[in-house]
Design a protein that fits this description.
Distance between the termini: 33 Å
Order of helices and strands: EHEHEHHEHEHH
Strand order of the largest sheet: 2-3-1-4-5
Largest sheet: 5 strands, parallel
CATH architecture: 3-Layer(aba) Sandwich
Shape: globular
Length: 175
């Protein structure tokens, strides 16, 4: 569920919990680690937020991403990936979840190759300005938020999510 009065950023990567703590002191940002929270607790957090920016680590595509990585790492089947795509599309259609305005990918160089292709290939192919790689020390997170790029919003989810199984690592974005 979206808070349409706020810009939502999902912070992903190995350093997400620690980096989120860095943001919570900013006056215009509400940040928290929510990946392990229940859906009810998450919805309460969103509904009580009136900050211009909501930053958290609860990715609506987490299960799709994991299934995609596992499929191409030969740890899961295509059926698992299709099931996760169906689940997220159903949740999006019912309004139970929504795409964030932006993803911030922490330390992309430290990700395994397949995860790197998901975060820097599959998602940016759908909406290039909506995925922002960030390396600690390159720029403060406050500055990243201050200078978010503008661009087209996420396209309708169904067409591009249905194609993720054909988004092959090392080839994604080359068509």
């Amino acid at each position: 569920m979206a808070n349409f009065s706020s810009t939502t950023l999902i912070f992903v990567g190995n350093d997400a919990p620690r980096a989120l703590l860095e943001l919570d002191h900013l006056a215009n940002v509400r940040a928290s680690t929510l990946a392990e929270e229940s859906e009810a607790d998450f919805q309460r957090w969103v509904s009580r937020s009136n900050s211009p920016f909501l930053v958290h680590d609860r990715d609506p595509l987490a299960h799709v991403a994991s299934a995609w990585v596992e499929f191409f790492d030969d740890l899961a089947t295509l059926g698992t990936l299709d099931l996760e795509v169906d689940r997220v599309l159903d949740a999006l259609a019912r309004g139970e979840t929504s795409m964030p305005d932006y993803y911030i990918v922490a330390d992309p160089e430290g990700l395994s190759p397949t995860w790197k292709h998901w975060w820097l290939g599959v998602l940016p192919e759908a909406a290039p300005t909506r995925v922002i790689p960030w390396r600690e020390g390159s720029m403060s997170l406050a500055r990243v938020i201050r200078y978010l790029p503008t661009g087209r919003p996420w396209p309708k989810a169904e067409p591009w999510l249905r194609r993720v199984a054909r988004a092959v690592p090392d080839r994604v974005g080359l068509s």
